[in-house]
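Task: sequence design from structure.
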């Protein structure tokens, strides 16, 4: 059977917001079947988290990467160093047009100054709360630093705890979906929870189903997606929707979605669950 794996990156191949570990790179080098990656983040974040460490830890194969929530496609060739070649891109700002784009950014900013969405004082707020990732907008109420140091990580954990306890993001997600309903319909947008701290705003179809649709067209009989955010509202959820809405009655849907971090209390180690899945299915050369 012609099988391919599509990996989410953050929380699936790496610990959250941390570089990929050597152990995982060795596993990727030894996969028996081809793989793609489909990541929520953009190149600015992924360079240090994924693409550079791959070379550093001796990765030597090829794969396709769909980043910025699937909308930007690179062919990645590591046979002679790290060579990333852009295959196709999509610009969110052009799709929206100037006035809608500014209306959206303005609405996001204003949301954080509404009384019920103000963060408690013990949570620090960094720069870059609204980040244009070219093909999508990432909105992170606590902002972000390029790489996470100890204090940023502890701040982030504080936010994650706060969010779990109060349902902050769920509430803000519902508010934004309501507030932006006209724009969502007109411009075919989707808003989901991104990672552990943010929201992703993108265009339907310009998401993680993009590599999946390409692989279906290529005729793969088994396309296995592995991700840590397949739950409703998560940034891998588009894959589940794709499977649910499969309407070709003559052909079985070849896509299968596997959730890591299923217990959701040990997200730092969810990438190890990915390795366990690969071993269980004998997808690694022995
Ligand atoms: Mg993830």
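Answer:
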């Amino acid at each position: 059977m012609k099988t391919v794996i599509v990996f989410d990156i953050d929380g699936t191949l790496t610990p959250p917001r941390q570089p990929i570990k050597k152990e995982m790179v060795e596993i990727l080098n030894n996969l028996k079947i081809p793989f793609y990656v489909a990541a929520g983040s953009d190149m600015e974040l992924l360079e240090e988290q994924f693409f550079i460490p791959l070379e550093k830890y001796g990765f030597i194969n090829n794969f396709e990467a769909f980043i910025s929530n699937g909308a930007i496609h690179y062919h990645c060739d590591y046979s002679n160093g790290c060579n990333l070649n852009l295959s196709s891109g999509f610009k969110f700002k052009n799709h929206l047009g100037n006035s809608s784009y500014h209306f959206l950014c303005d609405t996001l900013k204003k949301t954080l100054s509404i009384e019920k969405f103000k963060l408690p004082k013990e949570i620090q707020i960094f720069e870059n709360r609204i980040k244009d990732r070219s093909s999508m907008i990432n909105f992170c109420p606590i902002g972000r630093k390029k790489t996470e140091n100890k204090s940023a990580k502890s701040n982030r954990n504080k936010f994650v705890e706060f969010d779990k306890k109060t349902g902050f993001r769920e509430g803000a997600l519902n508010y934004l979906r309501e507030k932006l309903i006209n724009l969502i319909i007109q411009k075919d947008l989707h808003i989901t929870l991104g990672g552990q701290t943010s929201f992703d705003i993108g265009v339907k179809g310009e998401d993680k189903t993009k590599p999946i649709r390409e692989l279906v067209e290529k005729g793969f009989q088994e396309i296995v997606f592995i991700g840590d955010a397949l739950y409703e509202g998560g940034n891998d959820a588009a894959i589940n929707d794709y499977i649910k809405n499969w309407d070709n009655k003559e052909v079985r849907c070849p896509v299968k979605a596997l959730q890591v971090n299923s217990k959701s209390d040990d997200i730092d180690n969810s990438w190890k669950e990915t390795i366990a899945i690969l071993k269980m299915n004998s997808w690694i050369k022995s």
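The first strand starts at residue 3 and ends at 7.
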